[in-house]
Write a structure and sequence with these properties.
By secondary structure, the chain is of the alpha/beta class. The longest helix is centred in the C-terminal third of the chain and has 33 residues. The protein starts with 10 loop residues before the first helix and ends with a strand. α1 runs antiparallel to α12 and α11 crosses α12. Bound molecules: lactic acid. Lactic acid (LAC) binds next to loops.
């Protein structure tokens, strides 16, 4: 059991791992590389996953775990597990049903769907597809404030419950895989409807769209323009988390953009500790990056996260099996979380045993 994330780690890990292989077979190489890739030498991409692998549980015994509940609330919305699907662009390149299938599966699983600005399905269509579940809208502050304002107004009108403001992309990461494909994606017939009339200009090299002077007053502007609570995504430091809360954020998402922005950024499991130390238990603190399994989720919660975002795992499930594939993955994730909680002596999420994880010393 020495290798990380190998088949030797057992059937659960293998089943989660198989998602990517199944999906890869379906995807155009440029699309697969766009979704799978990270920035630079992809060290942060790899470290995100190995940082969760390097944590081990200290399970508490003599606990009654006859009934285990993974239910909680995220930003006031009840969820069946502390999980949101992360915002990811271009989902119709993964599966023809794209974001609508993702939203429908999230609603079925009772977890949050986060719609990307770079979605290939309109805000209202996705809201309709996932109407029974909580939904958030991810925004960038675009240089074109008119387009940003319109998106935020449409998100509020379509009853998205929160805005997730991504702040770790003042410029776009060096994605060598995308560069090799000339930043080309097979976009025939696929549009980015959130951009309205500006849709034609938006491509995989989206650097020209983004505001590079993103400051705390813009966070307040997003909150006022949308009238919605704002979660700031892309925070890796305790002091920055405090600045976000001071500027009116409802919480933060500890994230390095799935290793797609600054290579050599700290893995999110490490950054989560700093952020939780700084902000305490009250604000919503989510974390993403390398989270695939129920054990990964419980490790994040044990370090003080309120919940997690899963990105690529859900996307591979979408590519491999559309709505049913994502629903099956999310159901498996919830079951795996419940199973891991039972073995850790944690019947519910309100009172996890203290000191439930520690860094492995191997
Ligand atoms: C990306 C953008 C769309 O990571 O967030 O590709």
């Amino acid at each position: 059991m020495r290798g990380e994330r190998t088949a030797a780690q057992g059937p659960t890990r293998t089943a989660f791992e198989g998602l990517e292989q199944d999906a890869a077979a379906q995807l155009h190489p440029a699309v697969r590389d766009y979704f799978a890739g990270g920035a630079g030498a992809e060290r942060t991409l790899r470290d995100n996953a190995s940082a969760w692998d390097a944590l081990r549980f200290r399970p508490s015994v003599l606990q009654d775990v006859t009934h285990v509940s993974t239910a909680t609330a995220l930003l006031g919305s009840p969820v069946r597990a502390p999980v949101a699907v992360a915002p990811m662009g271009y989902q119709r390149l993964a599966h023809p049903d794209g974001e609508s299938a993702m939203a429908a599966a999230c609603a079925e699983a009772g977890v949050v769907m986060t719609l990307s600005t770079y979605a290939t399905t309109g805000l209202q269509d996705v809201a309709d597809a996932g109407a029974t579940g909580p939904q958030w809208f991810q925004t960038y502050v675009l240089r074109d404030r008119g387009v940003t304002t319109e998106m935020l107004h449409r998100a509020a009108a379509a009853r998205y419950a929160a805005v997730v403001l991504t702040v770790d992309a003042p410029v776009v990461g060096q994605r060598h895989r995308d560069r090799r494909h000339g930043y080309w994606l097979p976009l025939q017939g696929v549009r980015l409807p959130n951009f309205g009339a500006a849709a034609a200009q938006a491509t995989a090299s989206y650097s020209t769209d983004l505001e590079s002077a993103l400051t705390p007053d813009l966070l307040a502007w997003v909150r006022e323009t949308s009238g919605l609570p704002v979660l700031v995504k892309g925070v890796l430091r305790g002091d920055d988390a405090l600045r976000c809360l001071d500027a009116g954020a409802a919480g933060v998402v500890v994230s390095n953009h799935g290793g797609r922005q600054l290579d050599d950024a700290v893995p999110t499991a490490d950054a989560l500790r700093d952020v939780v130390d700084a902000v305490g238990a009250t604000p919503t603190v989510l974390v993403d990056g390398g989270i695939r399994t129920g054990a990964d989720v419980l490790k994040a919660l044990s370090l003080g996260a309120s919940g997690v975002m899963v990105g690529r795992a859900a996307l591979w499930a979408l590519a491999g099996g559309g709505r049913a594939g994502v629903a099956a993955y999310l159901a498996r994730l919830q079951e795996d979380l419940a199973h891991t909680m039972a073995l850790c002596g944690a019947p519910d999420l309100t009172q996890l045993p203290s000191g439930l994880v520690r860094q492995t010393t191997r």
